[in-house]
Structures
1.
Amino acid sequence: MTPRLINLRDLQFVLYELLEVEALTSRARYVDHSRETFDAAIDTALKIATEQFATHNGEADEHEPQFDGRSVRMIPQVKTAVDAFRRAGFMAAAKDYDSGGMQLPLTVAQACLALFNSANVSTAAYPFLTIANANLIEAFGSEDQKRRYLKALLEGRFMGTMALTEPQAGSSLSDIKTTATPAENGRYLVSGNKIFISAGDHELAENIVHLVLARIRGGPPGVKGISLFIVPKYLVNDDGTQGARNDVATAGLIHKMGYRGTTSTMLNFGEKGRCLGELVGQPHQGLACMFHMMNEARIGVGLGAVMLGYSGYLHALAYARERQQGRSPAGKDPLKPQLRIVEHADVRRMLLAQKVYVEGGLALCLYAARLVDDLYTSDSERTRREAALLLDILTPIVKSWPSQYCLEANSLAIQVHGGYGYTREYPVEQLYRDNRLNAIHEGTHGIQALDLLGRKVGMQDGAALQLLMREIDRTVREARKCESPELRRYGEELAHAMHGLMETTRNLLCAGDKGEIDFALANAALYLEMTGHIVVGWIWLRQALAAVARLADAHGTDGDFYQGKLQACAYFFRWELPKTRHQNDLLNNMDRTCYEMQPSWF
Ligand SMILES: Cc1cc2nc3c(=O)[nH]c(=O)nc-3n(C[C@H](O)[C@H](O)[C@H](O)COP(=O)(O)OP(=O)(O)OC[C@H]3O[C@@H](n4cnc5c(N)ncnc54)[C@H](O)[C@@H]3O)c2cc1C
């Protein structure tokens, strides 16, 4: 089966025409870079993703890793692929030259990494978790920890995990029970059980560095008493050489619906009372450290969801262009050849829906990555401050909207394939299963919704939401000056939706201020969905404005590409954005249907 990872023309459009990533090369950090170096990195990623990752995607799904009580075995292609990834330097794509990195802007680095997700999300998880782990140690580790762990992680000699979840503490991290007791040499004895830890055991690297959340004995209860620890599978000596096996045991593997090539482990720390950990950062600041890196991690999850949806869309499109079935309603002559199913309007409806979800999601996630670049590298203090605010409010949306809608794209891709889509002969069913995780891990959909409505929109007197509204308003004003009456109308519709959102937000925050907090937050998931749709409507209008400006000079396939963007924008504004009116009514009327439903009435 031909791997279908992305429409490269779309990726170029988003990077260079929408987000103007080339402009970053005027910043000191990226002065050695150019469009050529960005394209070269993307080409290399595409080649490795196609030749080393996509080639065993189905096999990794069918032959899950196995644990024999001592070690984990998996198909050998996983290691070959991870080795190719690490040799090409993608572990440190966005890192400084001094750390052995490519010093790429995060926007470009994320575009590269995205390709590995659409090729084979479960193999990509091993290096991606390692990158997240290294980011944390770089930000909060001591110089000694960086010397002993960071280099090895960035070279891929060590691999990493994030070990937060416990059986009784998934969404509710304040209920974590794993403990850390001070021991000799400033180290801690760690004791407890973690569950669902991705990449928690394997033989892909010399060592596995677990980043573990645990409570230092005697610390405050709740989230204020949680600290972060490095707990390696093998202890690392002062000179960086490998020491003895640490007391970390794999209690078993969890067998899953998707992401089946990634080991999901139950880990026991300190069964023999000898599990040594090193504190990262300050005591009791563990959750703050984790959340500091959440923006990037959650952009990664959102982008992962996009890419699984994107691959499904490309498979559905190729299938619809080939598969012949039925005739047009107006001409059912059985002597005439059957039509290709793409010629049925209803199939085009399903393809358009997928297109707006995945291309909208891609532009949204890369826009968020561009904000991270601004946050870390802009010369302007104001730009940095505004990027931080926009990221605060957009992060739950960037994580959740693609997890919901690009999964819907996967479902539609199956539908376009008819019965064949439901079989294991075609890749679309695996893409759906793999993507189903994204609304669950890294904070469930419900938890993201509470974060958005319960925290982000009200913080700093609503500064982030107001800034987002000003940004959207800027696009609306641009649309008003546009020659296209359609785009001018979409601008007004977007402005209307945004004003509705502002009013509803004020009412909900007001209810919260009056002490009706449970009631105000009861429909938070609907609020998240509505806000996500308005933000993606904005992203689509921006894409359409960029397309219309170039359409007159475009020829051949480029003309088709821009026309496709305009038609997709039309679909979003006619079919999708209007859904937010009803959602807004439910929210603004503070609908109590779910809130008042009693557990005993089910
Ligand atoms: C394949 C996979 C990989 C994972 N990888 C990792 C990993 O590498 N490291 C790691 O630490 N964890 C990992 N996890 C764990 C994951 O982060 C948790 O499953 C997730 O946080 C949810 O926790 P839970 O499963 O205990 O569900 P629960 O927290 O029990 O949630 C169940 C349901 O209740 C809802 N809910 C819970 N609390 C509230 C609330 N206060 N308000 C409203 N609704 C609520 C949730 O939204 C959800 O719908 C992974 C999970 C899976 C399935």
2.
Amino acid sequence: MLLIGMFDSPFVRRVAITMKLLDIPFEHGNWSVGRDFDRIREYNPLGRVPTLVTDGRETLMESGAILDYLDERVGPDRALLPRSGPERRQALNLMALATGAADKGVLQVYERAFRPEDKRHEPWVARCRAQMNGSLAAIDRYLGERGVSQWLVGKRMTQADITAVCVFTFLNDTLRVAADPVVFQSLGTLAARCESMPVFQETRVPFFVPNS
Ligand SMILES: N[C@@H](CCC(=O)N[C@@H](CS)C(=O)NCC(=O)O)C(=O)O
């Protein structure tokens, strides 16, 4: 299998971590959405990552759809998203908040990377920042109430934890969301716990400016 996209993307990274945890080997197409745009579009007309090319030459796009395929491949007992019921709904809600925060973060990063300075619109950037912070705060509050030593859902690490941590680390690297240690303290504790695990360390790379 070929996983296209750099690990500085939280969307690519959550797929890579999942594949490693589920013992699914892959070749890594470490291609930049800026520099390797045309090459990525040969596989995904949208020019987006992650894109996964399966051994059966099927091309999958959107990290959520790719994760769904990976869970299906390993079966319900090993799947990283809870199978059904309140835990599944809670995990999906937390992941929606996390990926939503990441989307708003990516927009802010691209504003700096792709848009000339005189064309930037600060009120729009501020709106993205407020949406991003609001989502992170909701996850942080939820975990704080649950207990910082807990996983986000159930009694084991699930896709909700992987996604929340990949997003939090990305937003911290690019936009310094946790510069003040009091803000997002619970998420910070969860991230520190996960980032010390080998599977997270193997996919931890410095952020790369997209159009360089
Ligand atoms: N909803 C998508 C978001 C993926 C995404 O935003 N990827 C970024 C990299 S972090 C990308 O490909 N950007 C290039 C572009 O959209 O032009 C997913 O979950 O896969």
